[in-house]
Amino acid sequence: MPQLITRCSDQVGALTEVYDGVYGRGQTDAFLNGDYARDLPRAVLRRVEKTLKTKATLIARADDERAAQEARDREAQAAKQARDRVAEQARAQERERKDEADRQQELALSQQRASEAKAKADEASAHARAAAESAEAERLKQIETAKGAAKLLVTSALHCGHEQLKSLVKSGESSEVLASAVMTICGADVDHFVEAGIGEYRLEQQSLAFDEGVARAKLREEMREHIVALAVQAKAGVGDFAASSSN
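Request: output the structure for the sequence above.
Response:
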C-alpha cells in the first residue's frame, strides 16, 4: 500500500478528504490498510479482467493470424519453389530439345556436305578416268603412228642400203665393211629410223626412265644387222641381188 499511496497520491488524497468527511478524520488510513487493501486485488482484477481478456484475445488472434500468415507464406514459398522447379525442368527440357535439334541439324548438314563432297569427288574421279582413258587412247594411237612411221623408215633405210650395195659389192670387201659403208652413206635414213624408234620408246615407257644412249645404240645395231644381212645376200648374189650379180 505505501507504494500505491505514493504513486496514486492525488487519488488517495481525494479519497481521504471524502472518507474523512463522512466517517471522521483519521478513518481513511484504517480503511485503506484494512478492507480496502484486502479487496483491492479483486477490484483491480475485476476492472482490468475484460481488458486483459481482450488483450489476450487480441494477442492470441494476432498469434493465430501470424501463424496463419507464416503458414500461408510457407505454402506460397513452397508453391513458388515448386513452380520454379517445374519452370526450370521445362527450361532444361527445352534446352535439351534445342540442343538435340541443333545436333540433328548439324548432322544433316554434315551428311549433306559429305554427300556433296563425295559427289564432287566422284565427278572429279570420273573426269580423271575419262581424261586418263582419253590420254591412254591418244598415247596408243601415237604409238601405232610411231610404229608405222618406224616401219616406213626401216624400209627407206634398207632400200637405200640395197641400192648402195648393188655397186659397193663389186669392191669385194667383207660384209662388215660393206655394212659400215652403207651405214655412213645412208646415215640420214638410219638417223630418221633411230629417232622414230626413240619416239616410240618414249611413248611406250611414258614416265619410266630409260637410257636414250643405250636405246640409240641398240637401234643402230639392229639396223646394222639388217644391212649386214643384205651385204651377205649381195656378196652371194642371192635374193634381190641375183639379177644384179648375173648382170
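The chain has two domains: 2-74, 133-246.
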